Amino acid sequence: MTEVGPGTPVITRAAAILRALADARSDGITTTVLARTTGMPRATAHRMLTALADEGLVDRASDTGLWFLGPEVYLLGSVAAARYDAAPLASDILRELARDTGESAFLSARRGDESVCVAAEEGSFPLRSHVLYPGKRFPLGVASAGIVMLAHLPDAEVTAYLEHVDLTADWGDTHSSAQLRRRVEQTRIKGYSVNPGLVVEGSWGIGAAVFNELGRPMWALSLTGVEIRFGAQRQAALGETLLLAAHTLGQRLKRKR
User: Fold this and answer.
1) Where does the HTH iclR-type domain lie (predicted)?
2) CATH for 85-256?
3) Low-confidence winner among 22-26, 79-83, 214-218, 249-253 (lowest mean pLDDT)
4) Which of 77, 165, 212, 218 has the fewest C-beta atoms lying within 10 Å of its C-beta?
5) Residue 183, exposed/middle/buried by CB under 10 A (0-12, 13-18, 19+)?
């Protein structure tokens, strides 16, 4: 949840609203729920929504009163995709991962201190985890994609991040700074991250970082599934598969630039 205070700049408030609408996906969201999600007074949220609607950035259903992202967001996104969207280059990689492993495969992008799922391919195994889906955001350090991107940042950036965030309120003691540091070290040793059901009990994930031309972890490939599918031996095999796929995608992105 992105909360903003009364003195928060207007642009920050607008961004929080757009992110909340994106998280709601096609279900839409009421003014009251959006205000509660962003921590704004309802009157402020309504005023901001009305102003954003005038610019085409949000849209309101006339029959239900629910708010959605607007057409202008789509147009802006289609332009930005030419530079930032790795999904088209990853589509066949995700299909192959899902086909070869039977697990659901995902591509996530780093946006500031968050990981955002941008593409998915469902696996064939009948029992599935539904924790991750396109548009879903997690703080860095949460879920396999967020863990692996955090782990591959320089030590100083990891320390600075852990000093200014407290994930325990929303994610429990398993996401304390000490626990996150331990998972960062484990991830660095293995090269890939493992999320042993820390977000939703029984839902496991493995992630591998994808680097940009400067060697920064800007994306991650991940596989998610149920606990019985993630024994120690298979974890290692899935991790190696992900590392190879992540390297392939990274090379494609470098050539694209």
Assistant:
1) 8-71
2) 3.30.450.40
3) 79-83
4) 77
5) buried
